[in-house]
Each structure stands twice: as C-alpha cells, then as structure tokens.
Amino acid sequence: MPNGVGRWKETRPAWDFERQMCNLMDTKIVRLKEGDADEEALLQAGEILKAGGLVAFPTETVYGLGGDALNPDSSRKIYAAKGRPSDNPLIVHICRMEDLEKITTCVSEKARRLAARFWPGPLTMILPKRGIVPKETTGGLETVAVRMPSHPAAAKLIEYAGGFVAAPSANLSGRPSPTLAKYVIEDMDGRVDMILDGGQVGIGLESTIVDLTVDPPQILRPGYITGEMLESVLGEVEEDATLFSVPEGQAPRAPGMKYRHYAPKGDLAIVQGTEDEVVKYINSQTDQCRLAGEKTGVIAAAETAERYRADAVKSVGGREDEEAIARRLYGILREFDEENVTKIYSESFGEAAGDRKGLGQAIMNRLLKAAGHQVVRV
Ligand code: AMP
Ligand code: MG
Asked: Among the atoms of ligand 1, which is closest to the Cα of residue 129?
C-alpha cells in the first residue's frame, strides 16, 4: 500500500472519513454577536456567497439557506444541499428598494404600495422576472418571488453578497423550517460553507407570499402579514383554494405547495371539537396507542396541556397568544423527532377559534401540511 494512503487512514477520525465518502464539506459555524450584526463574519459570509458558495443565516421569519440568486450554479447547489426538487422555485432576497426593478420587469402600483407598507419585513411578492434572474433560481418560471427581510444581519449579508440572495428555508426538504441554529446545524452541517447562528428567530413561520401577476392579487402562502393587513393596502385579495384543503384535480399555484412540507417523522393528526371532547378523544387514543407500543405526543395550548396523559405533552403557548404559538410550532415538531415520538395528536389553533384572517390562519396552514391534512372532528 502506498505510504500516503496508510498514513491518511491512521490519522483521520472516522467522521472525517464519512465526510469524504459522502462528499461533505467543512462547515464554518459562527455565532453572531448579540444585538447588532457581526461585521467581520458577515463580510466573510458575503464573500463566500459572491464566490458561489452557500451560507445559512437568520432572518425574522426562519433560517434561510443562501446562495447568489443571479448565479445558476449557486441555485443548483441550494437544491442539492436541501434535497429539494428543482421545480420548486426559490425566493430572492434583496436589501434596497431600487434593486426590485433590476430583477422584475413590471412593478405595478399595487406592488409599490405593498413594498412601501411592509418592506423590510415578512412579505414575499411574485412578479414577472427579468432575464438576469436564471431559470435555475425560479424553477423554470417566468416570474420571481422577491422579499426584503428586516433582520439586520440578513440585510447586511445581502448587501455584502452583491444584493441578490436566493434563500429557501435552511432545512432538508420535507423537514420543518429551522427556528434555531441547532436545527440548521442538524440538517446542513457538511452541506454548506458557513452557518451564521443568530439565536431564536422572531416570527417562526415563513413569509406571506402574494402573487401580483394576477388581479386581484392572490395569497399563495399565509404568514405574519395577514390577509386583513394586505386588504388594508390592496382592497380585494384572494386566497389560493389549496391553502386549507386539497381540492381534487386542482394544482396549487405556488409550486412548492404540492410537496409534503413541514412533516415530523411521527404520524400527526389534528383533532377539532369542543375542549372537553377533544381532550377526552386524544387521551383515549394515546392510551390505546401506548398499549400498541407507540410513543405518543400531544400539541396543546397552555390552558389544556395539563389535561393530557401522552408520553410527551408540548405546550405551544397560550391559546390567545398566536405570536408565541407561531414561534414555537416548528421547534415542537422537531422535538418530537428527537424524542422518537411515533403518534402525535394536536389541538386545532386559530381556525377553530374563528380566526379566518389573522396569524392563526398561517399557523393552521402549516399544521395541516405537517399533518398531511389528517383532521379528526369529534
Ligand atoms: P421556501 O423557500 O422554502 O420558503 O419556499 C418558497 C416558496 O415560494 C415555495 O413554496 C415556492 O413554490 C414559492 N415560490 C417561489 N417563487 C415562486 C413563483 N415564481 N411563483 C409562485 N410561487 C413561488
Ligand atoms: Mg421551506
């Protein structure tokens, strides 16, 4: 055996060997300083993006997995790192209003009003794209999704990267979006050049997506910017028919919505009904499931959590505190995975409380997707 090979085998630790075999790279993990953005790390991260590399970074919604949006190779790398189908388009993140016109052909009056009111912030607009945006970034579409995040580190990173960063959520395809850096590390260590750890994100659910290529504009994904808020600026707004149900034969208008997203490993069902009936039903189900050898979990409002007997009962926050519920939901789904919970029941939020337009709509949309639309009415 040649000398070099023997020495290599003796000195490399086992995990490093695995990295080589699986084509994994060394990922630099940097904790951003509290409060303000960490200049040196952000400059370095910007250089990585400009050179065609990938950087995961915090935003106000969830962690993003960034690449240069105008470089087709970067977008290909994003799809590969996430294991995401390449017809599921990426959102392009900008940091200056004037950059919107550089990547879109027609910024309508309505788009201008929305940008003026909600940017920087958790709103994504679909607009016709310019040729400068490669098809690799838009999943082959002639439209592009654009957002200007308000997170200060994200804004600086985008600036240092040249102004256009394609960034889907920094999770492996089909896993809940990461709300903490430890979840990004779990999914992306070895797959990206750098991970910027900015602590817990503020909102916890992905941006609202509104399609401005149709009239009236249509909500493709509900989020922190609610239907009511959009209506206050635009007048009439429609909702994509597939947000809360799966009508037969109707394809969702945001290509990403046809994929099963946000799925915990355990089987998840949502239970709707009066409080007492829901508690009684879930307790009887989890008792039975436990006898059958399942590890059981419950997602409950703080007010009812103590009434459940499952192995892992997670309080998602006070029923009225939708911001807390949004922030906590994805973390809970990941905790069930860590604890190997195999059967999960969730109370219903927002929708059951009659919240058709508020943040509860976004919470329920994500919960329904995580549950593969399994709903039990008791
Ligand atoms: P993520 O990047 O994981 O937050 O997902 C981005 C979402 O935006 C996906 O569900 C996409 O389908 C949607 N999206 C991105 N670009 C477009 C577009 N041009 N038209 C419609 N939906 C889009
Ligand atoms: Mg995502």
From this structure: 19
